[in-house]
């Protein structure tokens, strides 16, 4: 693969060992904005529903139209990230966030609000493909899991912020401020993006190998950048292309099945029912007044933040499977508790607080397991040529399930009742646990190119280490890391 001439100015690089932190930090800021924009509607919906006179179906549409736009964004996000680069794509996302949240804050009617939220959703869909890719392709194997999972922590931080903001503004019903405040950080995140380079693997994808070596040396100074770039080039040369059709052919059809299933189960188990409709859920539990129904979700998300941080601390030590399976298992248990609580009839006293604790632990367990691992698996399940396409497919499945939850959860609660609704989610969570137990690989400490060997070998790690350079020194011998059973 020849090296293409460079025609554009090169963004300056941070000093060695700090470059990876800047990549992760920038991705995290995008995650905070994404989390805020996702969660802000939970409080705003209470007040804008009254202003616009919305029905239950129209309330669901306000949420589902955002998810519908996100599906479109996820479908095109991989192509954009490959064509324009991860960094330029994130710049587009930052600008789109700033414009569309500002427009949503001044929407004169529900039709305009829905249209703007569809466009905002498209920006969100692009960001959840591009941001984890940007981080995963720019950090060493030893810390890649924690670095990518930090995007989930940032997302939870954004959701936490939105609940506290909603609580602070709930007294005056200021839903326009609730929706529009994130325009400021969205505009500011463009500043570091203008200074950072793209990822080494994207430069290799475009034939700019000299630039790839330069950036690799800065982002991972403990490896041989020439050898690492050569390994990436070799992996790219073996792939036929980055189309969705390539995902359906061996050896990656198995990987595609895994990531699509994981993406779907991640959302169909109901986490965004809590994110979007928490004030209504707490009212159903018997809590009254805006003070309680807006403040209690803040404590739920603080627990989720703690769970996400814990996942980061152990994900590269204990491994992906332990974190994922324990998180989903706890979700199953808490949905069973919620089903029992709502089946008891009118909630009061201790039963009400049991329901609150169950919601808190359910949400924390999601962010510990599913929430942290989906970004990791989406960014590392495929080789470089298929990585952005695979991430798009996985997150599209995730968003389709999210669309179903966003649109139909209010109607299910109203017609079937809370007990039946949470029982159904519990059955889906149990199916998710079984699916993950049988399909999720352990990729702790493995290089992105090394993980290809797992899928080529029918879902088993090769007995011999695959060819290619292995990181040494302080980053550790990742190829020698033991793998858990798949």
Structural overview:
The protein has 486 residues and is an all-alpha fold. It is 74% helix and 0% strand. The protein is built from 21 helices and no strands. It has helices at 19-52, 56-84, 86-105, 110-136, 141-169, 175-180, 183-188, 190-195, 200-205, 209-219, 225-237, 244-247, 253-268, 271-285, 289-315, 320-343, 350-368, 370-380, 384-415, 418-439, 452-456. α10 packs across α11 (225-237) and α13 packs parallel to α19. The longest helix is centred in the first third of the chain and has 34 residues, at 19-52. It starts with 18 loop residues before the first helix and ends in a 30-residue tail after the last helix.
Q: List low-pLDDT spans.
A: 1-9, 465-486
Nearest-integer average pLDDT? 79
Shape label? globular
N-end to C-end Cα span: 35 Å
What's the short story on this structure?
The protein is built from 21 helices and no strands. With 486 residues, it is an all-alpha fold.
What's the arrangement of secondary structure elements?
Layout: H1 19-52, H2 56-84, H3 86-105, H4 110-136, H5 141-169, H6 175-180, H7 183-188, H8 190-195, H9 200-205, H10 209-219, H11 225-237, H12 244-247, H13 253-268, H14 271-285, H15 289-315, H16 320-343, H17 350-368, H18 370-380, H19 384-415, H20 418-439, H21 452-456
Helix pairs in contact: 1-4, 1-5, 1-14, 2-3, 2-4, 2-19, 3-4, 4-5, 4-18, 4-19, 5-15, 5-18, 10-11, 13-18, 13-19, 13-20, 14-15, 14-17, 14-19, 15-17, 16-17, 16-20, 17-18
């Amino acid at each position: 693969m020849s090296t293409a001439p460079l025609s554009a100015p090169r963004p300056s690089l941070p000093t060695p060992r700090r470059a990876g932190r800047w990549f992760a930090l920038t991705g995290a800021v995008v995650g905070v904005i994404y989390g805020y924009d996702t969660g802000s509607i939970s409080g705003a919906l209470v007040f804008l529903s009254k202003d616009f006179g919305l029905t239950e179906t129209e309330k669901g549409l306000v949420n589902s139209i955002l998810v519908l736009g996100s599906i479109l964004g996820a479908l095109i996000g991989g192509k954009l990230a490959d064509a324009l680069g991860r960094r330029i794509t994130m710049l587009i996302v930052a600008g789109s966030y700033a414009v569309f949240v500002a427009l949503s804050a001044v929407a004169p009617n529900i039709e305009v609000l829905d249209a703007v939220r569809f466009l905002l959703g498209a920006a969100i869909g692009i960001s959840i493909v591009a941001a984890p890719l940007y981080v995963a392709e720019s950090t060493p194997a030893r810390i890649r899991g924690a670095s990518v999972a930090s995007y989930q922590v940032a997302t939870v931080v954004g959701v936490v912020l939105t609940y506290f903001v909603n609580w602070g503004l709930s007294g005056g019903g200021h839903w326009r401020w609730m929706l529009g405040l994130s325009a400021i950080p969205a505009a500011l995140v463009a500043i570091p993006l203008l200074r950072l380079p793209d990822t080494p693997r994207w430069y290799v994808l475009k034939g700019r190998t000299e630039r790839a070596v330069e950036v690799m040396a800065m982002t991972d100074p403990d490896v041989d950048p020439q050898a690492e770039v050569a390994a990436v080039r070799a992996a790219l040369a073996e792939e036929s292309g980055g189309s969705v059709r390539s995902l359906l052919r061996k050896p990656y059809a198995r990987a595609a099945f895994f990531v699509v299933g994981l993406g779907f189960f991640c959302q169909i188990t109901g986490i965004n029912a809590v994110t979007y409709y928490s004030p209504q859920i707490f009212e159903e539990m018997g809590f009254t007044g805006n003070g309680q129904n807006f403040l209690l979700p803040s404590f739920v998300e603080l627990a989720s933040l703690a769970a996400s941080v814990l996942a980061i601390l152990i994900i590269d030590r204990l491994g992906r499977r332990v974190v994922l399976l324990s998180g989903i298992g706890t979700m199953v248990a808490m949905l069973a508790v919620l089903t029992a609580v709502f089946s008891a009839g009118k909630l009061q006293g201790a039963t009400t607080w049991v329901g609150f604790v169950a919601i808190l632990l359910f949400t924390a367990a999601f962010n510990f397991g599913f929430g942290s691992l989906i970004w990791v698996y989406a960014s590392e399940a495929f080789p470089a040529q298929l990585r952005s396409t695979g991430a798009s497919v996985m997150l599209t499945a995730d968003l389709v399930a999210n669309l179903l939850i966003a649109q139909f959860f209010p109607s299910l609660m109203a017609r079937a009742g809370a007990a039946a609704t949470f029982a159904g989610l519990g059955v889906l969570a149990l199916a998710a646990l079984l699916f993950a137990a049988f399909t999720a690989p352990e990729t702790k400490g493995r290089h992105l190119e090394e993980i290809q060997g797992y899928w080529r070998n029918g879902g088993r790690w090769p007995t011999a280490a695959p060819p290619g350079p292995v990181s040494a020194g302080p980053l550790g011998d990742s190829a020698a890391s033991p793998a858990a059973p798949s």
